[in-house]
Write a structure and sequence with these properties.
heterodimer; A: 115 residues; mainly beta; five-stranded antiparallel β-sheet; B: four-stranded antiparallel β-sheet; globular
Chain lengths: 115, 114
């Protein structure tokens, strides 16, 4: 069965510091991997996705994630945190790209950014 | 214990039928949601209820009708199912109704309309 594990329910960084949100997955088939972000007052948005093309995926607002098969990881990074990055981030895995291939969500990581 | 549970997990049905998806949360949360996972895996909010009252109703065909008998339950009834309704539907809950409240997701209901 597929699953994702997000290490750390809360991450705090200073403005301008590196953001690293961890996600490890388990899948018996090559996975499709996603990061969703829940910004305050904006609801849930797709940040980026990996669908077996380039292993380094760039998303919106300067975020990127790298698929590492050997480590079964898909960590989310941003070189320099901004106050507006404060949000809840969800990693998700899917077995396929069809709209009926179900997403499996992690439990989320809340990112706090301090001035 | 599962925090947010949806039933059924899989639903295969014919066009034109009426079906329901049930959702229950045991977290004591005040707000519950239905999301639809579209073809690009983007989650689109359909409805949200706070303490049994409808607070978000996005542009969704009126064939979709949510019902909240109490704050722990939010069911989704769909009339006259169409092929385009095939998708995964997620229930979620949060403590409050502010959109920065953390969401807790159910495992999804995979609906296939034939």
């Amino acid at each position: 069965a597929q699953s994702v594990t997000q290490l750390g329910s809360h991450v705090s960084v200073s403005e301008g510091a590196l953001v690293l949100l961890r996600c490890n997955y388990s899948s018996s088939v090559p996975p499709y991997l996603f990061w969703y972000v829940q910004y305050p007052n904006q609801g849930l948005q797709l940040l980026l996705k990996y669908t077996s093309a380039a292993t380094l995926v760039k998303g919106i607002n300067g975020f990127e994630a790298e698929f590492k098969k050997s480590e079964t990881s898909f960590h989310l990074t941003k070189p320099s945190a901004h106050m507006s990055d404060a949000a809840e981030y969800f990693c998700a895995v899917s077995e396929g790209s069809y709209n009926t291939d179900k997403l499996i969500f992690g439990t989320g990581t809340r990112l706090q950014v301090f001035p | 214990d599962t925090a947010v549970s949806q039933t059924p997990k899989y639903l295969v049905t014919q066009m034109g039928n009426d079906k329901s998806i049930k959702c229950e949360q045991n977290l004591g949360h005040d707000t519950m949601y239905w999301y639809k996972q579209d073809s690009k895996k983007f989650l689109k909010i359909m409805f949200s209820y706070n303490n049994k009252e409808l607070i978000i109703n996005e542009t969704v065909p009126n064939r979709f009708s949510p019902k909240s008998p109490d704050k722990a339950h939010l069911n989704l009834h769909i009339n006259s199912l169409e092929l385009g309704d095939s998708a995964v539907y997620f229930c979620a809950s949060s403590q409050g109704e502010a959109t920065n409240e953390k969401l807790f997701f159910g495992s999804g209901t995979q609906l296939s309309v034939l």
